[in-house]
Write a structure and sequence with these properties.
alpha/beta, 7 helices, globular
Length: about 220
């Protein structure tokens, strides 16, 4: 293990690296954000990763969902991601839940250290927030479309006190911004799991303006 995680051990030490083996994270959604999160965190040393998604790979997914290839069309997204993680890392347990987040909640009996939102549905995010609060577990929200996205580490703030819960049709999207938002989520996740400081209940709005400048705005959220 020390050889495999050599560069990370140089970053945060052997004891911290070993502590990751005891962590369990849940990635809800195995599409664009979920694929990038699986790549970023699947080989980090986290001991147990649960992937939740009911969907199959479609040809229209592949350009921005970096884990999938043309031969994966029609396959279950959660199973493809599980196989990829296990092909890269022998120090991890991966559980693939072929179902909805509600299905996962009904059958889960494991302790969870962190939940990562990789969905595109406001109601599911509200349900994640409610469940996370009920088990006293933080979660990381991520959303992306066009050339902008949002990320927030939720601990005390309530999702539905910040966002209006309603159905909406996502706009166009390209792969790079998806990877950028997922990378921000993954960095917050790994810092938290390594017991480093993380700014909680702050919404990070990341976007490119009309001149192509990268802008990051931060907003403190009300707490319950």
């Amino acid at each position: 293990m020390e050889n495999y995680f050599n560069r990370q051990i140089k970053l945060w030490g052997l004891n911290t690296q070993k502590s990751l083996q005891d962590k369990h994270i849940v990635i809800v959604g195995c599409g664009g954000l979920g694929c990038s999160l699986a790549y970023a965190l699947g080989t980090s040393g986290i001991g147990h990763i649960t992937l939740v998604d009911f969907d199959e790979v479609g040809i229209h997914n592949i350009h921005r969902q970096i884990a999938f290839t043309l031969k994966d069309e029609g396959a279950k997204k959660c199973q493809v991601l599980k196989d990829i993680i296990l092909s890269k890392n022998k120090f991890v347990k991966v559980t693939a839940i072929d179902g909805t987040f509600e299905d996962f909640v009904k059958q889960n009996n494991s302790n969870i250290d962190l939940i990562l939102d990789a969905t595109d549905n406001l109601m599911v995010r509200k349900n994640i927030d409610d469940y996370a609060k009920s088990i006293n577990t933080p979660w990381i929200y991520g959303s992306v479309e066009e050339f902008h996205g949002q990320v927030c580490f939720f601990k005390e703030s309530k999702f539905d006190s910040v966002f209006s819960i309603k159905d909406r049709t996502p706009q166009g999207i390209a792969c790079p911004i998806v990877m950028q938002i997922a990378s921000t989520q993954a960095n917050l996740a790994i810092r938290y799991l390594c017991n480093m400081s993380v700014k909680k209940d702050f919404l990070n709005y990341i976007f490119y303006d009309e001149d192509g400048e990268l802008i990051i705005q931060k907003f403190g959220l009300p707490k319950e």
